[in-house]
Amino acid sequence: MINPAAYELPDVILLPFVQGALAEDMGRKGDITSQATIDAGKQGTLHVVSRRPGVIAGMALARLAFEQINPAIRFEVIQPDGAQVQPGERLATVSGDIRSLLAAERTALNFLTHLSGIASLTAEMVKQVSHTSARITCTRKTIPGLRVLQKYAVRVGGGWNHRMALDDAMLIKDNHIALAGDLRSAIRLAQSHAGHLTPIELEVDTLEQLAIALEEGIKLVLLDNMDCDTLREAVAMCRGKAQTEASGGITPESVRAVAETGVDYIAIGYLTHSAKALDIGLDYEA
């Protein structure tokens, strides 16, 4: 099921990503292999097929890749973003000039496999914590230039987004604390600068830091690299006072145990920096 927060990204946002990727792939002369081996004007149909089970994301990017190479190409979506698919299942059908189809193939699949991999991994983690109230969130650990796409894929997989950029909210971390002088100073400086619509989250490493955060009125704490026993203590301290978010090296193997400590959110950089691409191919049937 698609996260209700997984709003569709419009073509006007997606198009620059596709155009840049196509320019990179086409080089100076375009697809010289297809030009040499396929008759000009030859028409045909190719099928986008999943090789592995997973959750689809990035179908609009794939469509735009073909359309930018040749507007006459017909792209029919069979399994839209958010669909759970199985090996051998057709995801889309593309028809038109064969040279154009093959020229767009790699760009279309690069977007589709990468984003579907993120959506699939996110869906796996969401499923593992579904018996709790914890929400899976991503981080800013994204490939430079692709953040909006990767965070979209997280939403498609049932996760939620942390900050999109540095100006979304204040997140006070260890370096801020050290350079401000101490924890209380960092908190008070942030509070004095934040507008009424600017959230403040504080990263803490110990229960002692957490106690100070609660005294200073922090309403959202990032519990960094705490073991599960410490997380449970932190959650108990925050009950009725602040929301809790666990972070730090959380993987598919550890996420269930972290969720069972009672935290409200789990921030996972793994979703975007370590997701394995979903194996998807483009097949021709004579």
Count of alpha/pi helices: 11
Low-confidence stretches: none
Helix content class: 40-55%
Give a short account of the largest sheet: 6 strands, parallel
Q: What string, H for helix and E for strand, traces the elements in order?
A: HHEEHEEEHEHEHHEHEHEHEHE
Strand order of the largest sheet: 6-11-10-9-8-7
What does this structure look like?
With 286 residues, the protein is of the alpha/beta class. Helices cover 42% and strands 19% of the residues. The chain has eleven helices and twelve strands. The chain has a six-stranded parallel beta sheet with strand order 6-11-10-9-8-7. A four-stranded antiparallel beta sheet has the order 3-5-1-12, with helices on one face. Helix 10 links the parallel strand 10 and strand 11. Helix 1 crosses helix 4 and helix 8 runs parallel beside helix 9. It starts with 10 loop residues before the first helix and ends with a strand. The mean pLDDT is 96.
List keywords for this structure.
286 residues, elongated, alpha/beta, 19% strand, 6-stranded parallel beta sheet
